[in-house]
Amino acid sequence: MSKPSSDRLAARAPATSRYDTVRLSHGSGGKLTLELIEELFVATFSSAPLEELNDAAVLANPGGRIALATDSHTVKPTFFPGGDIGRLAVAGTVNDLAVMGATPAYMSVAFLLEEGYDMAELERVVRSMKHTADEAGVAIVAGDTKVLGRGHGDGIFINTTGVGFIPDEVNLGVGVVRPGDKVLVNGTLGDHGIAVMSRREGLDLSVELESDVAPLNGLIAAVRRAAPNVRFMRDLTRGGLAAVANEVVRRQAFGLRVFDARVPMNELVEQYSEMLGIDPMLAANEGKVMVIVAPDEAEAALTAMRAHQYGRRAAIIGDIVRRPEGVALVETAYGSRRVLEMPIEEQLPRIC
Amino acid sequence: MSKPSSDRLAARAPATSRYDTVRLSHGSGGKLTLELIEELFVATFSSAPLEELNDAAVLANPGGRIALATDSHTVKPTFFPGGDIGRLAVAGTVNDLAVMGATPAYMSVAFLLEEGYDMAELERVVRSMKHTADEAGVAIVAGDTKVLGRGHGDGIFINTTGVGFIPDEVNLGVGVVRPGDKVLVNGTLGDHGIAVMSRREGLDLSVELESDVAPLNGLIAAVRRAAPNVRFMRDLTRGGLAAVANEVVRRQAFGLRVFDARVPMNELVEQYSEMLGIDPMLAANEGKVMVIVAPDEAEAALTAMRAHQYGRRAAIIGDIVRRPEGVALVETAYGSRRVLEMPIEEQLPRIC
Radius of gyration of chain A from Cα atoms? Predict the structure, then answer.
């Protein structure tokens, strides 16, 4: 993976605001709110609709079905190896749109800031959001800011809601998945969840693991050009591979089989997940997508993934099977099988 | 104003969930999350795109420019006379779209819930959202739920992001406002802000004041049919009339004059705002809109407002004047004038 740009952005920059911290008045709708909006949000995100400062952004409509995705982000720590809450918030919503076959176009951003939150940190988060939005080719066009009294929030919460457009010919979904289809992922699993948890738990690590957080719309577009019969895509966020594999087979007349040995995994993830007692197949990713594709297009999809900066370690990890129906299985190199269970309890709180 | 429906919804209902309170696992992306989403959100909001449980909702595109508005809601108390945070969240975003000339169509809803939040209260909020969305003719099509550890949130935060469509011929904005234009509001000012504050401050009130929270897209559509040359509309939320009046004149070659005696005001609002030391012209409304219209259409607009349930006490409160430029003024019955200042400091924290 290429060096994430957020490392550079994480360098401490002086606050350009005349306040070092967020005040209640920054969210009251008065002069200070306007100042924060104009000097930080509008100046950084720099899109024409945002500059209008209207109640709603007015946007060109290129046609096609509309895709709408919303996600709130509460990750702790706010900055982590390989990324930050801002990159996460933008990439997460971009990915939710892209896996539905949409071209992400517009995004709204809503901040809930706690009184006293560091203004310089807010600026770093905002710049990281802009950087990620630019990478994804998405315009940030609408926003909202509220400030919570001290002790009533937790630093920063970010909601991103994205709008994309789906060409008429796109037909993706579990409904078109067939036995024999191949299951691909674009790289190593568990990086984000284990990176955040190992940082939070203060593990004494010789080598720091980095989150995989990235916008995947570019990679997904390349895969779909190479493999027009992509059946289904889903980003492997909360609950990881396990959650998505179970979502695919739920109430369906087929199963999903994963070959344990083919699942790409970072060595550090294997080590640290053992120390943390977390199954990396259940850990969150923020730059990984599962793609199910017709068998005769699997190699083309794999090649397209590997040619992309976010797909160097892509692999065909399994397939769709006739039996057992409605179950996701992991098969080991020795042929033994276990059920890939849906996570029940909170395993990794507030990592995405 | 008709009796707000949320009073009925506020009656205590038993939780249908098997948990009395929100648990961390309700936000983890696992089984409990799915249960909460399916049994409460999907069941109550009941829209086809939501039932798909996809990463993004896939929606019909009727054409026209797209309007996108986002708003987070953190009101305390969650239930207040005349409404609740759910009705507020839906109506607020509907109104933001409608004042831009858009027909509101779709909405996403993102919850940030604190661990331990009462499940029965959440169900009441969700039902109130559905009721308000139905009243406004908007479909809730996408959602997200995150759970914050105890002490890291404050009960419930709701983000609503709305999508609407603007017909090609609509041309609204400060740019088309002209001296001589008339300024209307659809009823009494300050009701929401003063109702919430008096409840929060525990004022000993003989008569309880009710919030005006309501979706205004129906009223606005009626006004626009009656007065095709509406120039500008804005809902009078945070900062009230003062904030919007200043927004209109900012950097413009005209001023805005409000006749003090013509501003509709509830007697209770006058009394309580004095007790609270709050200027009702700066207080938030959640069911009031300022409409600027060509002078020859002002009476038609007024008549249309008054014929609507949310416009019974509508009035022409002022006009656009050539001088002084860039200033909003209040003129008293005696002819004296004062500047209607933009609110600077937090006057009414967390009321919308």
Answer: 21
